[in-house]
Structure formats: structure tokens, C-alpha cells
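Case 700 in the screening queue. Each case pairs one protein sequence with one candidate compound; here the compound is magnesium ion. For every case the pipeline is the same: read the inputs, emit a complex structure as C-alpha cells, and attach any notable structural observations.

Predict complex for case 700.
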Amino acid sequence: MTSLPMPTSPPDIHTAREITDLRFQQLFEDVDAISIQGYLVDGTVIYWNRASENIYGYSAAEAMGGNLLDLIIPPDMRSTVEGAVHWMFENGQGIAPSRMNLRHKLGHLVPVYSSHTVVEVSGQASVMFCIDADMSALAKAEEELRIAATAFESQQGMMITDCRGVILRVNTSFTETTGYSAAEAVGQSPSLLSSERHPAEFWSLMWQSLQTAGSWQGEIWNRRKNGEIYADWVIVSAVRDADDAVTHFVCNLTDISQRKEAEGKIIQLAFYDPLTHLPNRRLMQDRLHQAISASQRNQSCGALLCLDIDNFKILNDSAGHDIGDLLLQKLAQRLTENLRDCDTVARFGGDTFLVMLEDLGADSVTAAAKAQLTAQKLLQALRLPHQLRDQVYHGSVSMGITLFDADGDSAEASIKRVELAMYQAKAAGRNALCFFDPHMQAVVSARAALETSLREAIAQSQFLLYHQAQVNQQGQITGVEALVRWQDPQRGIVAPADFIELAEETGLILPLGVWVLDTACRQLVQWASQPGLAHLTMAVSVSALQFHQEDFADQVLAVLARTGARAQQLKLELTESLLVSNLDAVTAKMQLLKASGVGFSLDDFGTGYSSLSYLKRLPLDQLKIDQGFVRHILADANDAAIAKMIIALADSLGLQVIAEGVETQAQREFLAALGCHHYQGYLFGRPLPIQAFEALARCL
Ligand code: C2E
Ligand code: MG
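Case 700 output:
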């Protein structure tokens, strides 16, 4: 702005007016964004300030002397403007101010708010002044608002909340989808729509993403006002102010329930059998593929069972296809009912079903036995009569089994094998079960036979306890370990290595374990009255399954009470494998028994799950160095180092240590030098039947 000269002395009245005029002239000239133009009655421009130049593009030099109508009036407004100008000069006043679009020198329109006034000075020609405010910015903002408003009322549900999540606005589509009107939603939290199907972590992850990335999108199960739960695809964006603080959240909700339903139908059609609703061939192949990969990863076997209905064609032809269909449905149902949730059963085509069992363990013989057990259960269930409308149908199926394991081949090859096995079962006279691998068949059959005789053995108490001495530094017997033997009428004395594992897998170890405990305690009572034997402790091995029974501690206490044995002379041998799970429950049981005087020894120490932290927590009395380390203790520096470490560990925890499998004097001396002063092994005596043991004990 040009500065005016400062008055040096008070101006007279005339000079004062001139100064005022000058000031106004300057003001008109300099005022920004307000265009002031002066016109004579015929439209000739006599005044054009700088803002007019900015707004309309003409410099004052270009505009002066030109005509209003030619300069800034668009052609379609010419006659209106002409009329208005005449009216204003005739009446000596401006028309009411209004918004209009006038023309820029370059041809485009400029939105302005235009006021007019007619200035009459006596003796002079009247002049019309137009005062136009540039409205471009406002018009643009209005346009954006219009666009935003249209966008807001789009097909998708929109919800705007403040930064705390209070709903400020929702659109019509939101109301249509959720059932909540704007009045009902505004002021509420978005949890208005909560279906309670998502856990707290889901929401905290969403907030985390909003804080860090400023946006989140995903599928949310929402609840409509009428209670119906449906799926929305939700996009949330944070709105930030100039200081980057979040002011609002804009949520866009798209109801995808129909799409999901359609997808579900497509999946159902593509991967499921419409008659039985079981997975079809394609899905089964896919799952088998995955299962084979998983079994390679986890080093665990799985099994494939192929079932085919015997004489299905005869039923179909004689009773009609709808009865045939009914049988397929009933069979599908029975199969599903008799399998675990994690097993897959599929209709593989016609009257053939495929069953896939996973996680049957690393050992293929055990896996085969488990698969056979399931197969037999299924055969039995399917053999029961089916009510097919008004007729009862007695049918059977033939079944093939094959295993897939770590070095197994493709899904296709496994399917071929199991189908072959199934045809073999059919050839063997139907209603039968056949393994693909004849060797496996033999192993499984032998196992099944062993299981049967083991059951009989338990029923008929065909067991014996052998006793093996445990000695101290001086070679005196301080106790024994009770070791079970099976006295089989055909096989003679069977060692535990040949049946304990099977007993554990079949659960037969539970009745056997009770028998062992009971017999061992009775032996203690018998010895109690014999001077050379009364002091002996009795170590009894307890398997994991036995110990994990909820009432194990009560069982032991009951045996002690029943037999009258002293708890202080009973020592339970646990293995490390037992401590892998449920450590709290294990500790509690041990403490309960410990309180009654029962002792604990940790068998085979060093071979299993050697987390040392549990050792501190458990009320143990003794660590038993596994015979595997003792065997080569003189020759193998590693074994010697481990034995030394176990002895030091026992020492620091205040536990006794005993070495198992001591066969030579040299081993005994080496162990003694390391600080181990209790021993068990052939050097002092093998496990012996009771009379032989008692004779030995009297000599030692
Ligand atoms: P374990 O508890 O580690 O028992 C020690 C095994 O080492 C016994 O085999 C014993 O005969 C053998 N042994 C002892 N000293 C020597 C030696 O100097 N050299 C050699 N080479 N071996 C020696 P056994 O009696 O065949 O028992 C094998 C396993 O069967 C036992 O190992 C135990 O895990 C299990 N077992 C035996 N009886 C029972 C029982 O009543 N219940 C349970 N749950 N398991 C039992
Ligand atoms: Mg033992």
C-alpha cells in the first residue's frame, strides 16, 4: 500500500476533504479480492481497480473506455444486464446484490457476489459502481461439499465417529442395512452393532492398526437391530487435523452376507457330495495331500481306510435307487458318528467311502494297530441293521487300510493302494478288513493276538514279581526293585520289554499296575517279620498312564491301607516322560503321597526330557542313573561326564543317587570315585523270583 505524506501542520477544511478523497481512492485501488468498477449509463468503463484486474483478467488500461457488456458479461446475460443498468440509472439506485457468474478475459466464468450502487454528483454524469467479491474459493468448497454429500449417501453404509468413537453421522444405507435410524445411532458407540463374536484381541489389533497406519479393513460380524447377525466388510480411516491428531473416524460398511452365502453354496457344490453332505473326491484328495505333508513335517503316520458296501448293486436294482440313496445317507451318518472330529470321511464315488486318520504316532506298527482298531469299530457299527423306510437292511462293507508316513508317496498313490487293499478284502469274501502291506497285516495280527492273551493273563493273574537287589557302598542290600514278569502257559516267562508297551497303549497297564503295587506291598508285609529282610525298601515302576489317573494317589494309599505295608518302605519309580505335561497335578499327587511317607525315585535319569527346573519343584528322594550311561562308563568319556554331572546335580539338590545296570567291579569303583554309593545291577544280582532272591539276600 502506498503511504500518504504525513501532515506537518493541521490541514484546513479543503485540504482535509482532498486527503479523505485521496484515502478513499487509495482504498478502492488497493482493496484485495473486491473488484470495484465504475460505468457510465452506456456501459463505458470509467473506473477499474487492481482487484478487477485480478478477478477478470483485464488491466485498467485495457478496460478503461471499454464497455461492461463486452468485457465481463456472458452473452446469455447481456439483455438482462442491459435492462438492469438502465433501471439503476433511471432510479438512481442499485439492484439488490446477488451471486452471478461473470466472464473472465480468458473466457471462463468467475463466480462473484455483486453489489451495485449509482452515485450522482450534481452537475456531473451519474456513475454506476459494481462491487464484486470473488466467490471462487467458496464455490469450490460448496462443490466439494456437494460431492461429499452425494458420496456419503452412496450404496454403502457410512458411519462417522469422533475420535472417541461416538457416532456423529450415519447415512441412509447404514440405516437400511442395520435397521438403526440416524436418530438411534447418533451419540452411540459402534458397539451398538456388536455381535459379540469377536474376541477382545480382535478389537485391540484393529485399534493398533488405526493408531499406527491410520486405517483398518476386514470382515466383522455385526448384529442388526432385529438381532440378525451378518457379515460386513469394514474399512475404517482416521481423519487427522493439521497437527496430525485424529479428529474423526470414517467407517465404510458393506454387507457381504449374500456374497458369503453364495460362496458357501459354491464351496458346498464344488467340494461336497450333495446326497450325504460329506466331502467329495476332490476335497478328500486335497486334504490327503495336506495330511501327507503334515505327516512328513511331524514325523507322524496317518492311515487311509477305503470302505465299499458289499452287494450294493443288488440292493439298488431290487429295492430302487431311492432306497440305495437312503442307505448311503445312513452309512455316512454312522461313519461320522463313529469317528473323531479331526478325522475326515468322504464319499469317494458310488458306494465307496474314504476315511483319513491322522496323527497316529511315529511308529508304523502302533499306527497300524490304531488304524485297525478304528476300522474294526467302523465295521462293527456299519454291520448293525439299518432301517430303510419299511424294510430292515442287514449289510456289510469291505475295507482296505493303508498307512501314509514320513517317507510316504503321493496322495494318488496312497489312494490306489487303499483301493487295492479294499478289492483284496472283497476277494477274501467280503465283510472283511485288509491291509495293503501283507507284512503289516502279519504284524498287526500278531499284536492283536498278543493283546487278547494279555487280557486273559490279567484276568487270570498270570504274573509274577521278580526282585532285584539295590546295595550300598558296603555291598549290603538296602532295598529291591520289583520287576514284573508274565508267566504265559505257552510262551513261558515273558520279559516286560515284550508286553509293557502294549499294556500301556491298550490301557491294560492300569489293572496290571494295581496288581504289581498290591503284590509288592504284600511282600513288604511278609518281610516285616523276617529279621534280615524287614528293613528293605521296595521300588515299584509306575508308568505315565497310571500316574496321570486322577485318583492315583488315593489308589496307592488304599493299597497301603489294605495290605498294612509301611509307606516309608515303598518307593515309586517315575520316568522323565511322565513330567512332560501337567506338572502341577503331578507335583500335587507326589506331595500327597510324600506326606504319607512314600518315596520317589526318578528312573532312567538323563535319557528324557531333562528340564532341570522341575527337579527343584518335585519332592524327589533319588535320581537313578540310566544303565545306558553306566554300560560304557569306563570307555566313553561322554557317558562318564554325564554320570558325573548327574551325581553332582543330585548332591546339590540333596537327593540320593543310584546307578542302574552295574555289571562289573570296575564300573562300581569308577562310580564310587565319582561319589555314587548306591548300585543296582547284575554284579549284585539279577532280578530273581522270590525264593531265589530271599536266598541271595541272606548271603549278602
Ligand atoms: P527299569 O525300571 O529301568 O528296570 C531295570 C531293567 O534293567 C530291568 O529289566 C532289569 O532286569 C534290567 N537290569 C538290571 N540290572 C541290569 C544289568 O546289570 N545289566 C542289564 N543289561 N540289565 C539290567 P526288566 O526287568 O526287563 O524291565 C524292563 C523295564 O520294564 C523296566 O525298566 C521297566 O521300565 C519296565 N517294568 C518292569 N516291571 C514293571 C512294572 O511292574 N510296571 C511298569 N510300569 N513297568 C515295569
Ligand atoms: Mg524301574
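Case 700 observations:
- The first helix runs from residue 13 to 30.
- The pocket of C2E (ligand 1) is lined by residues 468, 483-484, 495-497, 500, 516, 541-543, 573, 603-604, 627, 660-663, 680-682, 687 (CB under 6 Å).
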